[in-house]
Amino acid sequence: xxxxxxxxxxxxxxxxxxxxxxxxxxxxxxxxxxxxxxxxxxxxxxxxxxxxxxxxxxxxxxxxxxxxxxxxxxxxxxxxxxxxxxxxxxxxxxxxxxxxxxxxxxxxxxxxxxxxxxxxxxxxxxxxxxxxxxxxxxxxxxxxxxxxxxxxxxxxxxxxxxxxxxxxxxxx
Length: 172
Hints:
By secondary structure, the chain is α+β, with helices and mostly antiparallel strands. It is built from 5 helices and 8 strands.
């Protein structure tokens, strides 16, 4: 039985578990992920399950939050992820989202992100959020601005050669 952390009109968000390997395999190898986020060397579903257990579930244990699986209420379809992470090189908690290509441009990223922002503010009592994106990722930039985030500066984070755009928003 899955325990949902957040529910919206159309979506439910929950922690990832080992049964979500196929979604992670597909998502982390999707063209948008590879282009804008980069390879995580997930070559098999077993690699994806290991990624869930070693990376995603670690956030829940260490921080009390993380990236959540986003699914459609109506069908149970697993669409992608949205959530929060404490990222090395950033002072503030980072909001992130990624959807499978067939679920893009349907408002799910905005709906899940707004819900995560409210969860961060009202349940986790987080004061500020950040988000990072590549300058070429125009759809993410547009969404971050729609969410109320403001461009702060260009940055580099440890282990990443590419210059990123840092967006921020105050929650309190």
